[in-house]
Amino acid sequence: MSAPIPDQVLRRLPALDAVRVIGALAVVGHHVGFATGRNTGDTAVGAWLSRLDVGVAVFFVLSGFLLFRPYAHARATGQRPPGTGRYLWRRATRILPAYWVAVVVCLLVLPQNRPASTGDWLRHLTLTQIYQHGQLRHGLSQTWSLATEVTFYLLLPVLAILLPGRRPTPGPPTSAHPDGVLRIALAATVVTGGWVALMGAGVLSLGLHTMWLPSYAGWFGAGMALAGAQVALRTGRGGRWRFLDDLGRAPLACWTVALGALAVATTPVTGPRDLAEPTAGQFATKLVLYLVVAVLLIVPVAFGPQTRTKGVFDSIVGRWLGRVSYGLFLWHPFVLEGIYLLDGRPEFTGDPLGTFLLTVAGGLVLAAVSYYAVERPFQRWGGRWPRRRSTSESQSRVAVATAAN
């Protein structure tokens, strides 16, 4: 049995764009719930809105899956992995230009941020605002997760070397070949488990260190493990992971369980709904429940055959929303702050549904401007440089292009 060519194994999965949109809309809903004061209210609506930060788990698991998949494929087929310089360059041109524009606008335009100090500028422009208490500025509070994700981007080439273990031996593909899935999952669990234990022991701060990468290694690791399993399945080496394709054939069952896990997360087991610190146990419970939600949301789209559900996700609207979803993530807090400023609303008041619709509409307008004026030009530029000089680098381009989702 011959191994599939990279284009077949690493083909882009456009339906995942719709999953990214779901994550972005969930984050918007969470922030709207907080701004309108509903998150802290003793109502079912408030409970659900307060846990829509589950969208962050969706982003992190997706990033682990999409970015690690080319590395998993290179190891499974004995090819060269993506070049580190090119990978980092493409990540930088994908993320930083639009982010820097948002930082400049928020620090200059929002009156709550004026005058911004030199430290504010340096921390936000370098994505280091999460490493001290109380450094997130208005319109930029959501960027804590981007700072955490960028740390993962920087570490991924090293993790790709260290985690999967030895390369497959030559010969016909069999399920006995190592794919590194269990090793990755175990390592991620140990990192996050140890980090949470240190918070529980009082060594680390629940108010600060819950924003750092080790807290979410389990989420990124789950995405990486799913990538390893998918590559193993597509290259004929992953018989043990066939159940993931079976789950992919049952999207409604997966999403029902995911909804149940989120329902459990709306109860007090995951801690307070406001800005009060949870206990380490409550934080750990939230991490696990959110992980279940994210994985079961993604698996039916990333695994299994083409289904009618995937066809709905892989629509023109879904693809476009996926393209602008990063801009929606960046700009919706600015829009939300603007609604309250222009309307003269007191804090923690307002209709959550109306505010959500206004925020999404305004956010999509700015997201579209961001995509067409900033993101797409820089992505094209990032894709043209540095030039490819060999066949192996050309193959790496296929892998990194997939990772640019």
How does this structure look, described?
It comes from Micromonospora humida. This is Acyltransferase. Pfam families: Acyl_transf_3 (PF01757). The protein is mainly alpha-helical and about 400 residues long. About 65% of the residues lie in helices and about 0% in strands. α4 packs antiparallel against α16 (about 390-405) and α5 (about 85-110) runs antiparallel to α6 (about 120-125). The longest helix is centred in the last third of the chain and has 33 residues, at about 350-385. Mean pLDDT is about 90; it is low at about 1-5, about 170-175 and about 390-405.
Concise structural overview:
The protein contains 16 helices and no strands. The protein is mainly alpha-helical.
Oligomeric state as shown: single chain
Beta-strand content estimate: under 5%
Morphology: globular
Radius of gyration: 21 Å
Q: Which segments are poorly predicted (pLDDT under 50) over 5 or more consecutive residues?
A: 1-7, 171-177, 389-404
Q: Give helix % range.
A: 55-70%
Give the H and E element order: HHHHHHHHHHHHHHHH
Per DSSP, the total helix count is 16
Q: Quick check: average pLDDT?
A: 89
- Structural class, by secondary structure, is mainly alpha
* Distance between the ends: 30 Å
**Biggest beta sheet summary:** none
Total count of strands = 0
